[in-house]
Amino acid sequence: MRRLILVRHGETDWNAEHRLQGASDVPLNENGREQARAAAPLLARIAPVKTIVASDLSRAQETAHIIADVMGADVVTDARLRERCYGVWEGLQEDVRRSEHGEEHTRWERGLEPRVEGYEGHAAVAKRALAAVADHVTGEGTQMLVAHGSTIRVLIGTLLGIELGSRVIGTLGNARWAELESATEDDAPGNWVLRELNAVGDTVLT
């Protein structure tokens, strides 16, 4: 049985300000560090691992290192786990996106691909994230990946065989995690089962 724990990074100032971060390298704020420190012993108890694989963006790196320090684990970097690029939307708050790109923002809320410069589509995100899973989540046991809200949501949906763009799977909260299991070495859609979503401690939030 393979077990995959997907952890979202802690809070940043842009999260608190409801700005899209995407591939912009925004660091954790102090609240985000506290969130990671609170999650670390819980994750160490339920999913101890020797190696944590993290996105190369600093907010994921710092979250992973905070958790790894508690577990006594190493951190490996994989840029394929970084957040989706939102292009010209990065750094913009929701009200600005609505006022300046109203039609495309509505498309995006419906799960369709917004036609804005620099936006990375669902298929591209799924392809690179799946490739990271294929390389790191091998053999029996548990693997932990620390990544980002949109990338994790797309990855979970793809592993479960849900149509790209679907909003059935919600975005994880900061420093919360999802747990999936698979009884095979095949990452084809539908071979994974979602056990927990948006977990924090012993609580599963929906």
Key features of this structure:
206 residues, alpha/beta, Rossmann fold, seven-stranded mixed β-sheet, 7 helices, disordered C terminus
Cα-to-Cα separation, first versus last residue: 25 Å
- The mean pLDDT is 94
Which assembly state applies to the chains in this document? single chain
Describe the main β-sheet briefly: 7 strands, mixed
CATH architecture of the largest domain: 3-Layer(aba) Sandwich
Order of helices and strands: EHHEHEHHHEHEEE
Tally of DSSP β-strands: 7
CA radius of gyration: 16 Å
CATH topology of the largest domain: Rossmann fold
CATH class (first level) name of the largest domain: Alpha Beta
Shape: globular
Query: Spatial order of the strands in the main sheet?
Result: 3-2-4-1-5-6-7
Number of helices: 7
Brief description of this entry?
The chain has 7 helices and 7 strands.
Describe the overall structure.
This protein has 206 residues and is α/β, with parallel strands linked by helices. The chain folds into 2 domains: 2-83 and 122-204, Phosphoglycerate mutase-like (Rossmann fold); 86-119, no CATH class. The chain is 37% helix and 18% strand. It has helices spanning 13-16, 30-46, 58-71, 94-100, 102-109, 122-136, 149-160, and strands at residues 2-8, 51-54, 74-77, 141-147, 177-182, 193-200, 203-204. It has a 7-stranded mixed β-sheet with strand order 3-2-4-1-5-6-7, sandwiched between helices. A hairpin with a 2-residue loop joins strand 6 and strand 7 (203-204). The radius of gyration is 16 Å and the shape is globular. 38% of the residues are buried. Residues 202-206 have low confidence and may be disordered.
